[in-house]
Amino acid sequence: MIYIAKKAADLQALTRRYPSRGIENTCLAILAGSRMDYAYDSVAELDFELALRRAIVERAERLRRSGLDFQTFRHAYCNNLYWIRRADGGFELRRGVSAATAVRDIYSNGRAYGTECATAMQIVYYGAMLDTVRETSFDRAFARMRLMNWHDISSPLRETGQMQRAADYLPGDRRYFANPDVDLRAPEWQGENVIDLGDGTYYGHGVGRRRGSEIIAELNQNRRRGAARAAYLMNSAGRPNFKRLYESFR
Questions:
Q1: Confidence of residue 166 (pLDDT cuts 50, 70, 90)
Q2: What is the DSSP string of 199-225?
Q3: Which end of the chain is less crowded, N or C, counting CB atoms within 10 A of the terminal residue's CB?
Q4: Domain boundaries in the chain?
């Protein structure tokens, strides 16, 4: 159920605001049909979340097509005009460089970059934020951007690194396919960070756009000999704190 300003939302009125087959209405259907209550202080706050979720899905598809290479942290590389490659394989924004410009370069010049799946998820979320908020605000909030794992993500997006059980899963959520019996000779297959694209498929860097069953099948091919446990999709999600972002960037 959706509540706006403590009143039950008019779902028909809300759905008319968005394309009939768009991500926004996919999200609204899930929220409205849930046993959970989803409360927003205003329609503008709901609009912000839906816009950001749509941008996450769109940026995932754009990153898939960008030419970004899959590499382990040991072999990660980046465009040195905008980023410093750290010894641990992470990327650090060069001082004096616009965060917006540096993020855009990854999407337009993806072949100059190689990294693994957690970093790719961060790039998706930063790209989506860039599409949703003012560029000046983006540059100010992410002036010290670092790309690597969930310990490095900037404060405004820290919740994307915190997987929590959820009553509902929506387009734009980060999900995780775990491979508990991974072959230790291929640790990069211990799991796959993905973005829920809202149509039964997921984007994962290195596996592309796949259905869940396809990702599980690929992970299962990289288990140790005698493995007893199959790969599986965890019952949890990482997602931005949409309310806090809306209040910070409006």
A1: very high
A2: SSEEEETTTEEEEHHHHHHHHHTTBPT
A3: C
A4: 174-233
